[in-house]
Specification:
mainly alpha
């Protein structure tokens, strides 16, 4: 199934993640998605859903447009910050990852994995978190202009 690529914005990454996890369901466990099923249709973790959003906006390797790649990298970072801050309930402070001697992205990804794996977490809750974080990022048009 060919992947349709869109202009990269944090809101778009998070919207695609919400749509993906809403379609396939939330999986809690040690793997990114439910074992024994294809990754595109198996229930998945919150981290995998975010990754699906990233894949949806990633430019093709053959595209050498620096502006396009710059927008992609900004969307990647800003979407990860937005969703991890949202599930944390407040901005994540640098002391959190520095204390553990982790790099920021690894800490934020770990937060997503742990948040989604908490007992009682539901698909609906994950979808709502992605959509709320996307709304906080602003409209896609606003980010396309500022990116």
């Amino acid at each position: 199934m060919p992947v349709e690529h869109h202009h990269a914005t944090p809101a778009r990454v998070l919207a695609v993640a919400a749509d993906h996890i809403e379609r396939v369901g939330l999986y809690q466990g040690e793997r990114l998605w439910q074992p024994g099923k294809p990754g595109e249709s198996a229930p998945c973790s919150v981290l995998h859903a975010w990754d699906q959003g990233v894949r949806a906006v990633k430019p093709r390797w053959s595209d050498h447009d620096e502006e396009l790649w710059g927008a992609f990298h900004r969307a990647l970072r800003r979407s990860l910050v937005a969703i991890s801050n949202h599930v944390n309930g407040r901005p994540v402070r640098p002391a959190a990852w520095q204390h553990l001697r982790m790099v920021e992205d690894a800490y934020r990804r770990t937060m997503l994995w742990c948040w989604g794996d908490e007992p009682g977490r539901t698909t609906r809750g994950a979808v709502e978190a992605f959509r709320a974080a996307a709304a906080r990022c602003g409209s896609e048009r606003d980010h396309a202009k500022s990116a």
